């Protein structure tokens, strides 16, 4: 469950990320992405009415132009990433949430945590050709490789 600080951070990220284009130029998103409010009271209790309102607003995003994503993980778990989309499109929210939770840690590993070297290593593990890293990138150290392996094995992918 999202806490007040996590919600505020997510809301801030949405407003910053969606209000600027790739070059950092401000764009008008009024009427495209609806404003969202925190679903928490001053005492950090959940206001379920606001939460439901926000979820209804957020569920409209795919129909207002928010499509796709940056899916580095799809290079190694492509079928699973596509399955997540199918589950969402067919309204199978519990199954989608379960799958999403299993994909979060590996996705973070091949994007933010270990980046391209991590993605290349996992591609090799899954039978694809990741290849060597080009300068200035370095191959993963044995310690990093083990941590990456744990991110995938702890979630049932290796």
Automatic annotation (TrEMBL):
BP GO terms, sorted: glyoxylate catabolic process
GO cellular component: mitochondrion
A single MF term (Gene Ontology): (R,S)-4-hydroxy-2-oxoglutarate aldolase activity
One Pfam family hit: DHDPS
Keywords, alphabetical: Lyase
Subunit structure: Homotetramer.
Name assigned to this protein: 4-hydroxy-2-oxoglutarate aldolase 1
Organism: Cricetulus griseus (Chinese hamster)
Encoding gene (name): Hoga1
């Amino acid at each position: 469950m999202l806490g007040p600080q996590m919600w505020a951070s997510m809301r801030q990220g949405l407003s910053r990320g969606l209000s600027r284009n790739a070059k950092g130029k401000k764009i008008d998103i009024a009427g495209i992405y609806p404003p969202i409010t925190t679903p928490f009271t001053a005492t950090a209790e959940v206001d379920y009415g606001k939460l439901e309102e926000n979820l209804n607003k957020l569920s409209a995003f795919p129909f207002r132009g928010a499509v796709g994503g940056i899916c580095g993980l799809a290079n190694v778990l492509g079928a699973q990433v596509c399955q997540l989309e199918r589950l969402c499109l067919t309204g199978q929210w519990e199954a989608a949430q379960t799958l999403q939770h299993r994909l979060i840690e590996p996705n973070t590993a091949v994007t933010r945590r270990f980046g391209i070297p991590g993605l290349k290593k996992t591609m090799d593990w899954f039978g694809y050709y990741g290849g060597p890293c080009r300068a200035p990138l370095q191959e993963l150290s044995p310690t990093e490789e083990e941590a990456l392996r744990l991110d995938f094995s702890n979630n049932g992918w290796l």
